[in-house]
Specification:
505 residues; alpha/beta; FAD/NAD(P)-binding domain; five-stranded parallel β-sheet; 16 helices; binds flavin-adenine dinucleotide
Length: 505
């Protein structure tokens, strides 16, 4: 019978597992390598500016939505002001053209038709699909754990209403769909949105539906405040969190021919024991380092050998003595002179400012972030020569500042703070494999697991062990992380014949 649980990692998945563990009467301890909670859901301060490293949109931000229930339970939603942007983003083209991706589907449809009247039918098809998914996503409550015949029936009816849409688009990527527009600008601009390899159109449609439902807003205070709220909830529930503790190995003992996880060994060599271990840390490190690759089968090997991951990024963050609040908050710019990061040439650059959140910069000033896809191997090699590594970071920052200065003349002289995070920064602070920002990529092949049972969350031949977080569900993201932490505790309760319970503050 499990009484004590050790959780590896204090990201959103680990904190969620801890909260639900405490709610269900378990005694839990989290061991986290960093000195703060949140993992990837974080932010950092430089010269009076806060640079946010995560939340652009938070699914479940709307009071009463299915996922919001989880944020309520985790104490992350209470008292939080949410900003629902009118524009998701804006894709600019040559000659002043812009695709404004309005979050409201009616406004989006009218705008797209104005841009490309020749594509009226396809635009109606796209926006019709968003409307249909909005109705479905608005009624989704299964994740909150609510059950009963009425809920089940509602869920089934909802699923039936969108099934034809899944069947129709199950193999369509955003790039395939973009290619169907006749208008050359719309074709290019649409293809820029979610420009990821093999990214399923359905994934994009869901995001647009959540935005249309005003259920994917931005919480004022940003990512670290969000994580800290869950940390507070965990501590209030009686949980223990130990920072600066890297787990090196998961302790395994054999009894009656069965291998069981019995605790962890920390980097200093000390051991901590518990009845059950949940790893909410990086999947690759958990399976191949902490457990030495002893509990794998062909499926796990194939997953880690073949499944694509979200490419790591370089994030350039700037603090500027300039008020950008009158500018669109998220823009993708075409670049007359591309920016090269390693072997990757960027012909576009997306930037965001956070002027809608007064906690991010002093009054009248702005925090800006730019994310550029990067290669882990390139930065890994570069890091062997510290001077070259630093010089490359500086060069990228200068390129980004230069391109922003083209858009906002004079900005170059207003820069007060500069920070560059590389894939190695993500790896160092969060332990994520190859610095990946969100785990497994959502593709037309992996999307089914997003709505189905997901990936396996235990390992063959190892009892009393579970995994949670972005490495057990393609697509990653904060709701996924929280749900998987919750799911791990549900499974433990079920195994022991306990009824799973949850509560709000
Ligand atoms: C730039 C960026 C933007 C994003 N935007 C969004 C967004 O808008 N909306 C959204 O929903 N999601 C977004 N995400 C994704 C989201 O942040 C992640 O998917 C989610 O936070 C993953 O949570 P996790 O708990 O599974 O993993 P992690 O956050 O990686 O947590 C794992 C934790 O384990 C710890 N750890 C690792 N190894 C060890 C060890 N050996 N011992 C002890 N501790 C260890 C790490 O330090 C970390 O705290 C974004 C991510 C990035 C990087």
């Amino acid at each position: 019978m499990t009484q004590s649980i050790i959780i590896i990692g204090g990201g959103i998945a680990g904190l969620a597992a801890g909260c639900y563990g405490q709610m269900n009467g378990y005694s839990t301890r989290i061991f986290e390598l960093h000195d703060k909670p949140g993992g990837l859901c974080t932010a950092w301060k430089r010269k009076g500016y806060t640079f946010d490293g995560c939340i652009h949109w938070l699914v479940g931000s709307r009071l009463g939505s299915g996922t919001n229930q989880i944020w309520q339970e985790l104490g992350a939603a209470q008292g939080r002001t949410i900003v629902d942007h009118e524009e998701f983003t804006r894709i600019e083209g040559e000659g002043g053209k812009a695709l404004i991706v309005y979050t409201d589907v009616d406004r989006l449809e009218a705008h797209m038709k104005e841009l490309a009247p020749e594509d009226e039918k396809l635009i109606e098809q796209f926006c019709g699909a968003i409307r249909r998914l909005s109705r479905f996503a608005g009624g989704m409550g299964g994740s909150s754990g609510a059950s009963g015949p009425a809920t089940v029936l509602k869920g089934l009816l909802g699923a039936a209403s969108v099934l034809p849409l899944f069947v129709r688009y199950r193999r369509t990527t955003t790039q395939d769909f973009a290619g169907r527009f006749r208008n050359p600008f719309l074709r290019e601009a649409f293809g820029t949105l979610f420009d990821l390899p093999d990214f399923p159109l359905v994934g994009m449609l869901f995001t647009m539906a959540w935005l249309n439902n005003r259920d994917a807003g931005y919480p004022i205070g940003g990512s670290l405040e969000f994580s800290r709220a869950i940390e507070r909830r965990y501590l209030d529930l009686g949980g223990e969190i130990h920072y600066g503790c890297r787990v090196e190995a998961i302790l395994v003992e054999e009894e009656g021919g069965e291998a069981r996880a019995v605790g962890v060994r920390l980097s200093g060599g000390s051991e901590r024991r518990a009845d059950t271990v949940i790893s909410a840390a990086d999947g690759h490190a958990t399976i191949f380092d902490m457990l030495g690759g002893r509990f794998v089968d062909d499926t796990i090997r194939a997953t880690y050998d073949e499944l694509p991951i979200f490419a790591p990024i370089v994030q350039v963050s700037l603090g500027v003595d300039r008020d950008l609040s009158g500018e669109p908050h998220s823009v993708s710019l075409p670049l007359a002179t591309p920016i090269t990061v390693g072997e990757t040439e960027h012909r576009r650059m997306g930037f965001r400012h956070f002027c809608y959140d007064p906690t991010m910069a002093p009054p009248g000033k702005s925090a800006i972030t730019v994310m550029l896809e990067a290669s882990y191997d390139y930065w890994k090699e570069l890091a062997e020569d510290r001077e070259r590594y630093d010089a490359e970071k500086q060069q990228i920052a200068l390129s980004v500042i230069g391109r922003l200065d083209d858009r906002f003349p004079g900005l170059e002289g207003q820069v007060e703070a500069v920070d560059v995070a590389t894939p190695l920064t993500y790896e160092r602070y969060t332990g994520n494999w190859q610095g990946s920002m969100e785990g497994w990529l959502l593709t037309t092949k992996t999307i089914s697991s997003m709505f189905g049972r997901g990936m396996r969350k235990t390992l063959p031949g190892l009892a009393n062990f579970h995994m949670a977080g972005q490495w057990v569900q393609p697509g990653g993201g904060l709701p996924t992380a929280a749900m998987s932490g919750r799911g791990a505790i549900q499974v433990i309760c079920k195994r022991e014949g306990r009824e799973f319970t949850s509560s709000t503050l």
